Amino acid sequence: MSLSVQEFRQQFSDKLMTTFGKKVEKATPFEAFQTVGLILRELLNRKWQDTKGTYRSNSQKQVYYFSMEFLLGRLMITNLLNSGLLETCKQGLEELGFNLEEVLGQEQDPGLGNGDLGRLAACFLDSLASLELPGHGCGIRYKYGLFQQKIVDGNQVELPDYWLKNEYVWETKRLDQTVEVHFGGEIETVEESGRLTFKHHHYEKVLAVPYDIPVSGYQNHTVNTLRLWSAESTTNDFHFYSIDRKDYYHYLDYKRSVEQISEFLYPDDSSYEGRLLRLKQQYFLVSAGLQCILREFKNSYPSVDLLPEKIAIQINDTHPSLVIPELMRLLLDQEQLSWEKAWELTTRTVAYTNHTTMSEALETWPVDMVKTLLPRIYMIIHEINERFCRHLWLAHPTLRDEIKHMAIISYGQIHMAHLAIVGSYSVNGVAKLHTDILKNSVMKPFYTVFPEKFNNKTNGITHRRWLLMANPPLASLITEAIGETWVREPKQLITLLKYAGDAAFQEKIAGVKQANKTALAKYIQERTGIRVDDRSIFDVHIKRLHGYKRQLLNVFHILHLYEMIRDNPNMDMVPRTFIFGAKAAPGYHFAKKVIKLITTTAAKIAADPIVREKIRVVFLENYNVSLAEQIIPATDVSEQISTASKEASGTGNMKFMLNGAITIGTLDGANVEIREMVGPDNIFTFGLTAEDVLAYQLSRMYRSRDVYNGDQRIRRVMDQLVNGSLSNDDVEFKDIYYTLLSNNDEYFVLKDFDSYVEAQDLLEQAYRQPTEWLKKSITNIAHSGKFSSDRTISEYASEIWDIHPVTISSTT
Length: 812
Ligand code: 26Q
Known about the structure:
Elements: H1 5-20, H2 29-58, E1 62-66, H3 76-82, H4 86-95, H5 100-104, H6 116-130, E2 135-140, E3 145-152, E4 155-161, E5 172-173, E6 179-183, E7 186-192, E8 195-201, E9 204-216, E10 223-232, H7 238-245, H8 248-260, H9 276-300, H10 307-310, E11 311-316, H11 323-334, H12 339-347, E12 350-353, E13 364-366, H13 367-373, H14 375-395, H15 403-406, E14 409-410, E15 413-415, H16 416-422, E16 426-429, H17 432-442, H18 444-449, E17 454-456, H19 463-469, H20 472-482, H21 485-488, H22 503-528, E18 537-542, H23 551-567, E19 576-581, H24 589-606, E20 615-619, H25 625-631, E21 637-640, H26 652-658, E22 662-665, H27 671-678, E23 684-685, H28 690-699, H29 704-710, H30 712-719, H31 734-741, H32 749-767, H33 770-783, H34 789-801
Parallel strand pairs: 1-2, 1-11, 2-10, 11-12, 12-16, 16-17, 18-19, 18-21, 19-20, 21-22, 22-23
Antiparallel strand pairs: 3-4, 5-9, 6-9, 7-8, 9-10, 13-15, 14-15
Helix pairs in contact: 1-2, 1-4, 6-34, 9-11, 11-12, 11-14, 13-14, 20-22, 22-33, 23-24, 23-30, 23-32, 29-30
Bound molecules: ligand 26Q.
Residues 114-117, 120, 266, 268-269, 272, 278, 355-356, 430, 459, 647-651, 669 line the site of ligand 26Q.
């Protein structure tokens, strides 16, 4: 289905009139945006119907990706590009007197995720649809996404992200698909004709209402579904409720408590303690999603025995791991299967992805909380645990000492990762190194018991969003050189290698990078009033603020340069602009102090006429997907400097290399595989290896104070934190100072400082050789095909899910 510019204009003015009662000349950019959205939706709806119809009739296996987060970013440009209408729309809008960029800029960025894990889910949906694979997302329609960040006096301030304030043009409310989710109450066990049955009384009823978002594939006919659940109560419910309570105020309380469930996204917090509301959210997602899948399944198939042949459920970390006991509950209590049969079906349907090895990030829930909120689910988890421990005792006598560490329930806590491993048929890590650490250390005893479950699926990103859409000039240049097959087969990017040393091509690449830097410099000036030198090196560190991601190490390098320039104002160096973007969890004190340190350092340098000629620091507030799309194409240096072993994979690293930035990084997460691909000459690695870090943790032989005492450069940097040179308030940064010295620098910032500074020096020398630098840059782009989420999803499809592409037949 394609539209001519003429038809587009006609539809635009018709829709504008019916929706807003306005003529084109009077329309605001927002109204123009909504109108284009409505045109696209109509086109998408047809394909959507066809896709659903085809899936229903061809009976092939489908996958459901359960995730508490989907960090979609703006969808208009994706949908335009996917339906081949980008040029038509651009021209049509221009002829009608609008500017495409401005219209696209009207779209809210749905911030329904914290960071990488949520963004990964969004990339996966894009690849599923683009590869014509039958796969859907299942998540929560939070009323408020991740908070909006403002910087006030150098500090982070959080504001609510009410992304739904204008109608969201891509969603459709599906009232007819509403299901009920039950919380609390008691379970009565009764024997009925020789079988125990479980009756749930006095529960609180919550309505789960789905909102569907179409997920279109790149220039094909597939439109899959992202279903987001909203907790709602209707006034019609009042009569149900009042039978028990006869109290209008109780009803209002109930309504409030129901609506809270999908009210906001929890920020990923370093010191997070289990909160009842988060558990409610998790069960809400899982129960609504599974009931709906099972209902649909039973309409299509004669017996639930076929479940593992027809459906796979992937859980994005342990957050949705209650799918395991909930599926058991539905199969036992509703479908009346035996425990053994229900367990067989469940463990052949569910697969689990792990995203962290850090023990403090592995989820646990207090037994009492689960018992009270989800009494039947608790009974089932208890039984799973009993059976699992018995199995270990009988079948793995050598592991008897380990059982207490492997139990699902121990010391009053439920260990969700243990539940997820035991209840699924596949456990995957997200980069080779990460999977090896799971197998050989963090989950070693489980690997001994279930070696066949463990596998690696290195993360990927959609090159359509992160190159084709975010960096059109680079995309065109690549297509000019090697043709356009790379868009459908990103591995083809490898043919760019033959241009790595080609002077003419290098010059064009340099031109694109320079233009992107100029554009970013302009954007920075508009947003912050700061003028940055677009000829300086753009050195970028954008990701969530976490101790292990070591933004602090980057700041220490900057403070070190500061001292060097003060010592020697004529020092010969290539000017650099350090760009940061990061949100800290609202309760994460240390992370917020690091933000303050970055902004304070930025201000100090800006006020110093000598230093600011050579270095500049910019903190861009409210980092999100749209901001990333602006920054990444303009980046020279990609900072990926986590403490080795801590960053499971990272995906920013991949987005940067795809856009020709050079990585400075530790041998952590997917950096290791990036290095394997591009070779050691085309990446700057430094610091402790994962093995070193794990060894230090075991031996407890690291003493940060010794490093401090033995290294004058570090002392100078550290002392700036507390000697009043950064802040008049001499306690402002003392917490950072003591975390590094008295708390022994958990993330090895001091330990890695020297080798980081050395790597930065080497990097600068390389930058001084433009031909060599550009060769590195092109080599990185050429090898980035491996890191496309199309590759990742193909691996999940064949090695975990056993699903296959489906050609959508047109029914209209
Ligand atoms: C937990 C409890 C309460 C509130 C929030 C959370 C929570 C929310 C989000 C905990 C963790 C997350 C997100 C984790 C995450 O993004 N992990 C990242 O996953 C990426 C995709 O695989 C990897 O690339 C990153 O390395 C990993 O850090």
